[in-house]
Amino acid sequence: MESPDSVRVAVNIRPLISAELLHGCTDCITVLPGEPQVQIESHAFTYDYVYGGAGSPSFAIYDDCVAPLIDALFHGYNATVLAYGQTGSGKTYTMGTNYTGEGSNGGIIPKVMDSIFRRVETMKHSTEFLMRVSFIEIFKEEVFDLLDSHQASLSKVEGASLPKPTGPGRPPIQIREAGNGGITLSGVTEAEVRTKEEMASNLARGSLSRATGSTNMNSQSSRSHAIFTISMEQKKIASCLSGVNDDTADDILCAKLHLVDLAGSERAKRTGANGMRFKEGLLALGNVISALGDEKKRKEGGHVPYRDSKLTRLLQDSLGGNSKTVMIACVSPADTNAEETLNTLKYANRARNIQNKAVVNRDPMASQLQAMRSQIEQLQAELLFYRGDGNASFDELQILKHKVSLLEASNGELRQELQERRLTSEQLAQRALDAQVEKDKLVTKIELVRNGKSWDEIDFNQNQDFDLMKTYLLKIQELEGELIRVKSLSSSKCKRISDCIDEDEDEDETSKDLLFSSGNDYSSSDEIEDNEKELEHSTLQEKLDLELMELDKRLEQKEAEMKRFTSSDTSVLRQHYEKKVIELELEKKALQKEIDQLRQNLANISSPSDVGAQKLREEYLHKLNVLESQVAELKKKQDAQAQLLRQKQRSDEAAKRLQEEIQRIKSEKVQLQQKIKQESEQFRLWKASREKEVHQLKKEGRRNEYEMHKLLAQNQRQKMVLQRKTEEAAMDTKRLKELLESRKASSREASSAGNGNGPGVQAILQTVEHELEVTVRVHEVRSEYEHQVEERAKMAREVSRLKEESEILKHSELRDYHETMSAEARNSRIFALENMLAATSSTLVAMASQLSEAEERERTFSGRGRWNHVRSLGDARHIMNHLFNLASSSRCSLRDKEVHCREKDAEMKDLNEKVVVLSGLTRQLAAEKAALTREVKLKVGFISYWC
Ligand SMILES: Nc1ncnc2c1ncn2[C@@H]1O[C@H](COP(=O)(O)OP(=O)(O)OP(=O)(O)O)[C@@H](O)[C@H]1O
Q: Any one cellular component term from GO for this entry (predicted)?
């Protein structure tokens, strides 16, 4: 009978209300005519149904979406209608939660009531119906019973910030998980209703007690999540069963329809609804929808955080469970609400991916009930027997005795099992504690990393951690094995005790085996710390859930036992037996008295020879015999009654013991629930801190990347400058060599032409010209070399600074690296470096211009016009002498220059080596950064995977 049903999603767009029109709001939602598609801004979404705007009229919601659910309800399926949306978007209006019973306000709930009772009316000849309603609200993460008579006096809460009364007058309802995995509310009022009017009055009564307040957007805003539940049990009437399949003849179909009106989903700030904790429920609902809506996670069987809030626990069956569900996303078309509307639409879109698995809810206890009924009948027959004065045998009494002994035996077994469970529970608690200790250690380690411990130190501890992980995983496996053992033990016992084990258990076992095998797979893999932690948490949660389920099952069994004890109204029975014993006693006394009287009469008969007296005597003796046998009979009866009374007393004591055990199980359960709550809270905190940490690491990673890019670019620039300078230095050296060569040649020429005139003078002039050029060049080269020396010194400084930087980057801790002061210092250093580079470039530019000037001068000197300035030979000689002097001094300086050149070459070599070292460091840094980024990505991946 199982079939996967997607959650169907409808969007209801209400018209602009007068307040919005007054504010000049415009419609920002477009509905594609004839298509269930809405468009807002640049986003388009497709749903199962769209109402309002250009879509279908709103009144059609019931026929399209809800009527099929009513059909399903009558066929034994659970169903849910859930209204979601921001405040003032029309949830209450659409659901009709504030229906008072008069007329029809067009909402879904009045139509549901109408439809159910019309249908019941047509089926009443063939089917018996038992209908109950409950109405609860979730306010500040507590569940309250809106139909509880204590609450009748509660008035509406004025203003969203006023708290509702709590305490003894308004006790919160506890959520309990039934053995079959269903959720029940212990002690909630389930009012039996027979007519539509009765149902409506319950709804109106509950609505009056609901928490409402005034917000900026809705004067009558619901500040709590309300769930109106209609439970329906139906059974075919025996006389109408001819021809009906025997298997289903005794079926009792029990189904529930939840009508959910959630509180507004908007951000509290905008509406002024501060201090409300319904957000927690909505947030958890969003997480549940995300987890169920994500196909990948669903296929992988990821953890669905139902336990994060009361709302999600209560809607556990409606979302991804045994229910047919329709979600109605209510939106306002006003452009001022566009952002919230978009959020609602996204939320609703995700909900469409949720797959439910609705099954027909046949009462699993129907057969057991039948057995109990026959037991009651049998007991009643027994009672009749003892009330009457028939002489029937004591077979029934023997049967009763046998039953009591059976019950006592089963009770003993249960007690033993309970003891075992208690032991297991203690062991589990111990293990949970151990896990917590390990967790704390890991958290401390993370803290150490964050607080600046170097990677080397962490690496040093890595082996230890790995061992820790291994022991940890071993523990988990051990725990899982034990759980399987306990579960199999429990199921075999249950089989023996009550013969009522579901097929579901096998399914559970299979799924658990799967879980364990996946756990083993996992343990064999070498995952990172976060993954381990998340898995550990979900395994622990699942284990605790299983524990809780087991306890619930146990509790149910005990309660059923208890019911069996109490079903045959023991006090009445006891009173009857006691009365009977007294009656028998009285009767016995009366008979005894009669016997005594007869004996006296017998003794008074004086003459035994008298025939009359003889006859009378015989008559008396006969009567005496009869009476004595009657007394004996009565005595027997009295003994039997007394035995029965003792038996009853024993069973009363057994019931008392059972009651105590129930109490103990209950308190254990409460403890377990608290433990689960604590565990999930701790995990939530851990997760939040991890997320924060990852966020910081990401930020740091980005900063590192930026720094790296900057340093790399700088390094590249420096390399280029260095290369250029090296080339220039090589060029200069070459040019210097050429100059030296030409100077040598000119001196040779000068010495060979020293004795002649004419051409000799010309040669001298040529020499002078050469000398001049040489001088100019020498000057230029000198200045150039001076610049070079300066530049190289600067470069050397830069290189050593860069090296320092690299050292800092390599060894400094992440935290220091990201402190603002440190970043500022780095920035200023980089800025200084850049300035220096700029200065070097400008020097080079200046040098280039100087060079071009020198070349220009050279050109001028080599031109004809220069000869006009050398008027006489004397001048020329004078100049020549001067030049000779200059040449000799320049020769010396050239030698110096050569030495300098060699020195510079050595320096250049040094510099090149440093550059190589620097590049190595840069590569190392890049590798470290890549590793860091990989780690961050990995962590982000895992966190998003577990979210
Ligand atoms: N389809 C509709 N047609 C006309 N008016 C509507 C419609 N839906 C809602 N309204 C009006 O909008 C206002 C807000 O509606 P309602 O109280 O149902 O919102 P809500 O979503 O339940 O708000 P809250 O979350 O604050 O309880 C009411 O005045 C209601 O009459």
A: cortical microtubule
